[in-house]
Amino acid sequence: MMKLEDYETLFAAVGLIGVLLFASPALSLVVHLPGSEQFSELYVLGPEHVLAGYPFNVSADVNYLVYMGVGNHMGESAYYIVQVKFRNQTDELPNFTADEPSPLPSLYEYRLFLQDGQNWEQPLTFSFLQVSTGQNKSMVSGLTLNGVTLAVYKPEVWNQENSEYFYELFMELWIYNVTSDTFQYHNRYVGLVFNVTGTS
Question: How far apart are alpha carbons 61 and 197 in whole angstroms?
Fold first, then answer.
């Protein structure tokens, strides 16, 4: 027969197990187990704030809208830069295998500080300026990004296979490295491909 002290120990053990089981979903929000995957998200949403409806056949002097997004799942706070770049079909994209950014200059950037588990979204409005086409060639001389006008002078030749003047607006994710005290390319990029014409 069990003594009263034995019952007290049994009830305490069962109660402790019950508390831990009840609290485990809440604990998972604040406790990061070793070995859990750490990553950052970079994404673009269309003008309706969904993964659809991206502009493709675009005209000069028309404003277009998308939304930039970053999610921090690194297990700690992170300081990010999103660099916006513009290319034709012969310009280099980032090299995923070598973990290297595109050598193209950044035209516009967002700087943001996110806590672990936090997401950030901001609009990106853009338009193409001074677009000329003729003799199977195109030239985009200017670009506006969130109201900032930039000279780009980006030529392109007619793409016979796809029947378009191929341009791409793409975004790279950079993250601050505390050890080196510098921002480094975070091996994430997304792009929007356009067929740019000269008339609206």
Answer: 10
Question: Mapping DSSP to helix (H, G, I), strand (E, B) and coil, where does residue 128 land?
Answer: strand
Domain locations in the chain? 1-31, 39-196
Tell the residue number behind the tokens 């929007």, with chain if given: 192
pLDDT value of position 33: 43
Residues sharing a CB contact under 8 Å with residue 125, sequence separation 6 or more, in sequence order: 63, 64, 65, 144, 145, 146, 147
Angle CA(148)–CA(94)–CA(91) in degrees, nearest 5? 70
* pLDDT means over runs of 10, the chain (200 residues): 54 50 42 66 95 93 96 96 96 94 97 96 95 88 96 87 84 96 96 80
Residue 122, both tokens:
């901001």
Q: How buried is residue 82: exposed, middle or buried, by Cβ count under 10 Å (0-12/13-18/19+)?
A: buried
| pTM of the predicted protein model | 0.79
- The fold of 39-196 is Immunoglobulin-like (2.60.40)
Note the pLDDT of residue 9.
Answer: 57
Pairwise CA distance, residues 102 & 148, whole Å: 22
| Structure tokens belonging to residue 24 | 């485990």
Q: Which amino acid is at 160?
A: Q
Of 27, 176, 43, nearest in space to 112 by CA: 176
- What is the pLDDT at residue 8? 60
Q: How far is CA 92 from CA 13, 18, 89, 190, in A?
A: 63, 57, 8, 14
